[in-house]
Amino acid sequence: MEDRATGPRRPPEPTFAELFTPKLVTVLREGYRAADLRADMIAGLTVAIVALPLSMAIAIASGAGPERGLYTAIIGGFLISALGGSRFQVGGPAGAFIILVAATVDRHGMDGLLLATMLAGFILLALGFLRLGTYVKFIPYPVTVGFTAGIAVIIFASQVKELLGLTLAGREPGEIVDKVATLWGAAGTLNPAALAVAVATIAIISGLRRWRPAWPGLLIAVVLVSVAAALLALPVETIGTRFGGIPSTLPWPELPPVSWERVQAVLPDALAFALLGAIESLLSAVVADGMTGRRHRSNCELVAQGAANIGSALFGGICATGTIARTATNVRSGARGPVAGMLHSIFLLVFMLVAAPLAAYVPLAALAAVLALVAWKMIERHEMATLLRASRGDAVVLLATFLLTVFRDLTEGILVGFALGTLLFVHRMATATAIEAIDDQADARERVPFDPALAADPDVVVYRITGPLFFGAASTVGAVLDRIADQRRAFVVDLSAVPFLDSTAANTLAGAARKAARGNVRFFITGASVGVRRTLLAHGVAAPAVEYRAQITDAVAEAQATKAA
Q: Membrane topology per the record (predicted)?
């Protein structure tokens, strides 16, 4: 809606309660019936069955014990659903964090990881309450596709040792080039039994996805190969042989050791956790919105992610975030609201209390196979091919993000990709801004009735600027405006097709106006919206150097009258 006097009316700003009320409260206010609870119980159980092996696999790949993945899914997942701004978000440990978490454990130990996770939680709380969640959506699509594919490659590389049952002389390197060289050097230690377990796991999951997609393929595959490995006494490493099994209860909450020196040491890791957690969770919420037609509250979601990471760290868990795979499973299973995600955590707790001793028989090769399939699904092959074909700029952003993520660092990949994407956007916006002289061939796009004969007057120059006028286009526009001839009596710049301008553009127009004033040329600005005019006035583009008129016709007629006089 637009008011002629004040310009476009802005919708009222949402209140604090509207921004940060959890979706759980919204759903309960709408009326939560027994049928909704039954649907959420079925969805929660389905997601828990998927999350059980996946949470343990992600924790092991991250350099932590399998129980820490369960703690994360139980505590973090419950808080994300209970406090979050999405009806269907399901949280827990995510494959995207594997490399960051493993590197943090290597540098600072498990206590350092818990402290970094807690600090990331406080950072996410701050991002949410400062209402910065809306800006995460400005990350370019090629960047998200590139870093997701890069993470997938790193995850797969990290699982090759377990997939093949290799025995390494020392620690597995973190850098992918050194990792590949080390794995290649250990090829002679391949364990055929571990490879058979991994191949069987992949085959069962793939077969069930094809012929029985509604069945919980991950859990069925892990259970079957675990039973087979135990009955056949296969010489493969299991959760029990490496970790001694998992606890059957949750630990008591406990603060990790905190000191100023440790906070400074782990702060870069905490920032990386917070950045990736914000991106991953909000992307997952957007996917859920697309599947259901609902809208999430991004800032409320970040607050929930912050609380979840603090809670997870207190109970010994690792980084928690909303995950696309579990959230999509939740939606497809018929969830009605956040209760489904909360029940998923409760079911996981029940599984841990009841079946913890059985986890000791799970082969690590089976969990590695699960993560290998997760990595394969993370690579959006069709989207990558489309972006590579779409334009050279998108291809450069995608490849730069992907290669830096794989060979350098995840955070560096995101930052460089974002910077390149921003430069590409500025270039495209700058080329979309045009400045044209209105002459006797004035086209039909003119917004107001205008007599082309007036524009043909050699003593009156009329230019129309179309598109956003900002620093990327200001130099081009300035070069045109600087060619004002001193012998002209009037210069008219029409801004009716300029939706916004920035300080650089305002300064460019101010310079043109000063030059016109020195040559005794009247300088008119026409058609400026309220916002554009406010910006110009704030930068000194005002009388007597500049005269504002509503329409081109007004300015040209006034210039003609001055000439006639």
A: Multi-pass membrane protein
